Amino acid sequence: MTNQVQPIFILPEGTQRTTGRSAQKNNIMAAKLVAETVRTTLGPKGMDKMIVDSMGDVIVTNDGVTILKEIQVEHPAAKMMVEIAKTQEDEVGDGTTTAVVLAGEFLKNAEALIDQNVHPTVIARGYRLAEHRAQEVLLKMAEDVSEKDEASLKKIATTAMTGKGAENAKDSLADLTVKAVRAVLERQENRSFIDKENIKLEKKVGASVEDSELIEGIVLDKERVHSGMPASVKNAKIALVDSAIEIKNTEIDAKIQITDPSQLQMFLDQEEKMIRDKVNYVVKSGANVLICQKGIDDIAQHFLAKAGVYAVRRAKKSDMDALARATGAKLVTNLKDLSASDLGRAGVVEEVRVGDEQMTYVKECKNPKAVTILIRGGTEHVVDEVKRAMEDAIGDVAAALSNGKVVAGAGAPEIELGRELRKYAQGLSGREQLAVHAFADAMDIIPRTLAENAGLDPIDVLTELKAQHDKGGKWIGIDVFTGKPMDAWKRGVIEPLKIKTQAVSSAAEVAVMILRIDDVIAGSGSKEAPKMPNPGDMDM
Length: 540
What we know:
Elements: E1 16-19, H1 20-39, E2 49-52, E3 58-61, H2 64-70, H3 76-91, H4 96-115, H5 120-141, E4 143-144, H6 150-161, H7 170-184, E5 186-188, E6 191-193, E7 199-205, E8 213-215, E9 218-220, E10 232-241, H8 261-284, E11 289-292, H9 298-306, E12 310-312, H10 317-327, E13 331-332, E14 344-354, E15 357-363, E16 371-377, H11 380-403, E17 405-408, H12 412-426, H13 432-442, H14 445-453, H15 458-470, E18 476-478, E19 485-487, E20 494-496, H16 497-515, E21 519-522
Helix pairs in contact: 1-3, 1-4, 2-3, 3-4, 3-16, 4-13, 4-16, 5-12, 5-13, 5-16, 6-7, 6-11, 7-11, 8-9, 12-13, 12-15, 14-15
């Protein structure tokens, strides 16, 4: 009789588990591959990616976060890298590729230390020290900027759009960006506050990118509801109504008995009178433009047209809020309460044909706190990419103004940061010093990538840049068009400090998190309960 020990099943059948060094290697490899995917898009000479989804829709972009969202990453460590890009997008609106590439390089350098038997927690501690020091260095390095410095703000917007699909019209688009951001800027206790939601980006295919325009007000993707209405209203007094201008059906089933035809006529006349009264409330308030969030009955459209009121129906809630901010109107739910004080003001409200559609322009608003940039372009893909470039530019200008600090670009801050961190590492004892050195070396990936994407020799470029920085040129970056070092600040390559601080902190945090994982347990994916061994199968 053999006494065999029963196997113990802790995890369900089909569960995959990798532990120790192989788990770390696997995670680091996945993260590096994500960084590699977007790396070629970095910088003025970065290339674009074409993504075709399962429906056959095509996206052409070099925006890091758009690429990573669209390719639907499966690996859990790779998903963590995508999260960095999303955070960067939400916090700043630009620098997503920088953040992902940095995280990939932090992990690559950490892997070399793990191979030398440096424990991952030691590397993690060193990385945290380095990241803390990096934030101090960046803050000390930054220069001040204010909303009055229009030239610098334009340079920030231009830098954000260089290397993207909008590059050929970057000067005119930078102009629109700065005007739009300054229009919606609000001051709160010596701080500038910008809500990017107040800059509406409306896109329409047709014309060229240079024909994009800023409307000091709101563009609605809607036409007037009746052809008898005026096509253009000057000195518009705008009523914003979010209830329907039509007869409500009763909630309860009602039966109405009619004994002769005149009663039916009275019934219909009463309905018409109710609609006429609703229209009269609008006209009496002095409004000559009505924007309704719900429906407008056909009879109401006729009465409004006779009264010379320009009306739009089924406007989006977000557009209604933007109109309130742009025109100073108050949103009214009960028509009886509509008064002259609820109306907003705009210089002109008109219907304009854009491409093959009619749109309503609410423009020439006085001091609008919400504006619209209408983006044009030859094809759907061009317009989409210009919109993404504009979002980056708006995010950059807003980030620069909200904390009032900027740095030069072109790889200059990363070289300076690496230099300062190497000095800092010398003052440390113990193995953390190796990790801080690895962190400092990882900073070189940004100028190295800029050089590689421009077809330059990265070793020559880096050597030259480091030599210049050692001589005290803190804003010396790489001119990717000539391959020579340049003073990025004088050349107008300026970025908000927030891009760098956010990219370094989120990249370091994710690198540390991935390094500390030594066990990956992946579920089987099946919902069945795990099979238990049958006692009858065991030898006794």
